[in-house]
Design goal:
Strand content: 15-25%
Distance between the termini: 43 Å
Largest sheet: 7 strands, mixed
Helix content: 40-55%
Number of domains: 3
Radius of gyration: 50 Å
Order of helices and strands: HHEEEEEHEHHEEE
Number of helices: 5
Shape: rod-shaped
């Protein structure tokens, strides 16, 4: 190495070197090479033979070389592979974006982060976002370096061109605009709307407290409506019972007076000088009138009791009517069985902000039969 800041050239040594011509060595190839050192010096005839990888080791393609303006990323390996499996990367296009959902009526104001990937194919339409699948990760979780000793699938030519990603980014925004729609639930009885990302079960649970408060409010309103009516009937019952007591007392006194009058008439008739005297006849008439008044008083008592029973029946009917309306309120405000209205909310293009649309390598574990299993 010649350095203008030093007096002369210097010899330097690298710790490791990688040649892109043959590609990275596989585990099996490394094992074959290290076996030479372990076995010691080989015979001249053996040393002259070229070193070959084990026959069962699959051939792995090297990592494609991309132009500087095309940046690629690697999805982290999070799943351990089975014994003897090799790791291979497949190209895909990943899109990360923030999507806002804003609506005034019903009110909806929220934002969600989303991430999708779709295969990149060597065809006239290399990328189709309609085939996109969600991926559970953030853009900053992508890695810039691959897993060691891995192979790569062939990369379509379109993925190596920078202008392709500008087109794919624009189509990604268009796809989010048409595909990303959120469904909100509305309770007709309470007028409440679910929040963004809230499931139907979570919404019903949240409505439970609000439903109890609404039921209490409606029942209290109903109670205030019936309370004056109930008080009026109770006051009528109280007055009717007072009349019953008064009429009963009067009937009692009248019966006593009738008894005395009849007794006096009988005594006068028995011990008087003349049975048909004017006095005895007058006393008998008074006794008869007393009996008639006693009978009338007894009828008044019965009528007063009938009034009390009628008012009590009115009170019972009113209380039953109140209980029925309260039961209907309980059924009407029941989020467990209520049928929700659905409201669809879609984003505006101005509310879609892409964070990253780039080439990513998806890791797969491949067995000896080339059966693949996702490793992320």
């Amino acid at each position: 190495m010649y350095n203008v800041h030093e007096d002369g050239p210097e010899v330097f040594h690298t710790r490791w070197a990688l040649s892109y011509l043959p590609g990275p060595l596989t585990r099996a190839q490394i094992k074959t090479l290290t076996a030479i050192r372990k076995a010691g010096a080989l015979a001249p005839s053996e040393a002259a033979q070229p070193v070959r990888a084990e026959a069962e080791a699959p051939a792995l393609r090297p990592r494609p070389v991309l132009p500087p303006e095309v940046k690629d990323y690697f999805v982290p390996v999070r799943q351990a592979g089975p014994a003897g499996a090799m790791l291979s990367y497949a190209p895909a296009l990943a899109g990360f974006a923030d999507v806002g959902f804003h609506r005034a009526r019903p009110k909806c104001d929220g934002e969600e982060s989303c991430a999708f990937w779709t295969p990149v194919e060597d065809s006239a339409a290399p990328v189709d976002w309609e085939d996109a699948k969600p991926i559970e990760m953030e853009a900053d979780e992508l890695e810039t370096e691959p897993y060691a000793a891995a192979g790569y699938d062939s990369l379509p030519k379109a993925a190596a061109k920078a202008r392709s990603y500008t087109t794919w980014n624009r189509r990604f925004v268009q796809w989010l605009y048409t595909d990303q729609r959120k469904q909100l639930f509305k309770s007709p009885s309470l007028g409440m709307v679910s929040e963004l990302g809230e499931t139907e079960g979570e919404f019903r649970s949240r409505l439970g407290m609000a439903a109890r408060e609404e039921r209490d409010r409606l029942v209290e309103k109903l109670r205030k409506k019936y309370e004056p009516k109930i008080r009026r009937i109770e006051e009528r019952i109280r007055r009717a019972e007072a009349v019953v007591e008064r009429e009963a007392e009067q009937s009692k006194r009248q019966k006593l007076q009738s008894t005395i009058s009849i007794g006096a008439s009988l005594l006068g008739a028995l011990f008087g000088r003349k049975l048909a005297s004017r006095t005895n006849i007058g006393k008998a008439g008074t006794a008869v009138r007393s009996i008639n008044r006693a009978s009338k008083e007894a009828g008044d008592v019965q009528r007063a009791k009938d009034n009390v029973e009628a008012f009590e029946q009115q009170l019972a009917d009113l209380e039953a009517e109140f209980a029925e309306e309260a039961r209907l309120i309980e059924e009407r405000v029941d989020p467990r069985a209520e049928e929700f209205e659905t409201i669809e909310v879609r984003p505006k293009k101005s509310d879609i902000s892409t964070k990253l649309v780039a080439l990513v390598w998806l890791p797969y574990w491949a067995d000896e039969h080339q059966n693949r299993k996702p490793a992320w």
